[in-house]
Amino acid sequence: MELKFAARSENESFARVAVAAFISQLDPTVEELTEIKTAVSEAVTNAIIHGYEEQEGIVYMQCSIEEGTVELVIEDHGRGIEDVEEARQPLFTSKPELERSGMGFTIMENFVDSFQVESRPGLGTRVRLVKTLKSHSVANRH
Amino acid sequence: MSLHISTEVRGDTLIVRLEGELDHHTADMVRQRVESELDRGITSHLVINMERLSFMDSSGLGVILGRYKRVTAGDGRMSLCAVNDQLKKLFELSGMLKILRIYATESQALTEMGVA
């Protein structure tokens, strides 16, 4: 599944709902669904606030399902991150004046199984999130 | 789905009830509404009721932390109530559970505030 949409805050809930609808075929638990929606919300919000700095832009989102594993890629062609390691630190924010909590990356990291950020200053940022749903994990497969 | 905010003044405590989704898009509404209520100078304490909040992300943490700073700077107290387990996880991750009190119900929160 692929989507591209304008980098506007109104579309944050659209992105969450679209992913939730797509993965509903895996019958996720409420907890899993909330975790994935929250991680998507963080990545899309980052693209809008930090990538495009609330100016015009397009957010790209891909979601695929392989057995019980959900893979999400959220990408912007915005300003990029100079120091990804620094940005990943809990409570780090480049925009404290906007009351950002600095928890976006920490939440993504905690809510999915695998989380990667690639960024090139001036070119954009790409976040990859992978999560295997419990009901589909190897241990539960008969 | 958006966010609906309702407020009630009980003594010197402002009760803010949130219904819907609190994200970057709706966080500004919460900030402006709570700030304008506090600016009236009637209330110094704040209780946020999250019973009907169906979604929140780190933008919500930011706006709550911002209000906490304002309320405590004025010697007020702030607490949250009816926070579900998923939301609690966000507060835990951010370390905010160390500074914010969470009560099961609004009436418990108000009792603790001394206004029930």
Tell me what you see in this structure.
The complex is a heterodimer of chains A (142) and B (116). Chain A is an alpha+beta fold and 142 residues long. Chain A has helices spanning 11-23, 30-51, 84-88, 104-111; strands at residues 2-6, 58-66, 69-76, 114-120, 124-132. A five-stranded antiparallel sheet of chain A has the order 1-2-3-5-4, covered by helices on one side. The longest helix of chain A is centred in the N-terminal third of the chain and has 22 residues, at 30-51. Chain A is globular and about 40 Å long. The mean pLDDT of chain A is 94. Chain B is α/β, with parallel strands linked by helices. Chain B has a five-stranded mixed sheet, sandwiched between helices. In chain B, strand 2 (13-22), helix 1 (24-39) and strand 3 form a beta-alpha-beta unit. In chain B, helix 1 runs parallel beside helix 2. Chain A binds chain B through residues 9-10, 12-13, 16-17, 30-31, 34-35, 37-38, 41-42, 45, 48-49, 90-91, 98-104, 106-107, 110, and chain B through 1-2, 21, 23-25, 27, 31, 55, 57-59, 61-63, 65-66, 85-86, 89-90, 93-95.
Give a quick rundown of the structure.
The complex is a heterodimer of chains A (142) and B (116). Chain A is α+β, with helices and mostly antiparallel strands and 142 residues long.
How would you describe this structure in keywords?
heterodimer, A: 142 residues, alpha+beta, five-stranded antiparallel β-sheet, 34% helix, globular, B: 116 residues, alpha/beta, Transcription Regulator spoIIAA, 32% strand
Gap between N and C termini of chain B? 32 Å
Specify the structural class of chain B: alpha/beta
Which chains share the greatest interface?
A-B, 29 and 24 residues
- The 3D shape of chain A can be described as globular
Rounded Rg of chain A = 15 Å
* SSE succession of chain A: EHHEEHHEE
- Helix count of chain B? 4
**Relative helix content of chain B:** 40-55%
